[in-house]
Amino acid sequence: MAISIEQPELVDYDVENERQRNVEEFYQLNHINQKYDFVKRMREEYKKLSRVEMSIWECCELLNEIVDDSDPDLDEPQIEHLLQTAEAIRKDYPNEDWLHLTALIHDLGKVLLLPSFGGLPQWAVVGDTNPLGMWTGKCGHVMGS
Ligand SMILES: [Fe+2]
């Protein structure tokens, strides 16, 4: 009697390792460069809202050009991330239309990576955020100093 064993889907470890390495490098740059003074300077620059005027959908379409280096599981253009997130939220919370919109626009700030919005480096725009300029306690480090 032959035993049938289902084969697991093969994982390309080289691709996985390279992606993981890229994420690690990304967060290293993020922690080295994301300082309080930098963030203050960027807030001053971008709160002017002087670059362009466009619709939400036009802005979403700009994310077709962006892949987020901080996300090890996603190498698709960010517009897909926006649409998948909004659709998943709509499915789980069908009566919360404000939440669908929030999910759709939650990453529009990633346009700052594009040259027409300043072409900031990935470490300055995407990924997890951390408190800056405050004492963190036990480890003895001051983040963003
Ligand atoms: Fe996101």
Automatic annotation (TrEMBL):
Any one Gene Ontology BP term: L-ascorbic acid biosynthetic process
Molecular functions per Gene Ontology: inositol oxygenase activity; iron ion binding
Keywords per UniProt: Ascorbate biosynthesis, Cytoplasm, Iron, Metal-binding, Oxidoreductase
Residues that bind Fe cation: H81, H106, D107
GO CC terms in record: cytoplasm
InterPro entries tied to this protein: Inositol_oxygenase
Pfam families: MIOX
Manner of cofactor binding, per the entry note: Binds 2 iron ions per subunit.
Domain of life: Eukaryota
Cofactors: Fe cation
Catalytic function, reaction form: myo-inositol + O2 = D-glucuronate + H2O + H(+)
Enzyme Commission identifier(s): 1.13.99.1
Subcellular compartments: Cytoplasm
Pathway, per record: Polyol metabolism; myo-inositol degradation into D-glucuronate; D-glucuronate from myo-inositol: step 1/1
Similarity comment text for this entry: Belongs to the myo-inositol oxygenase family.
UniProt protein name: Inositol oxygenase
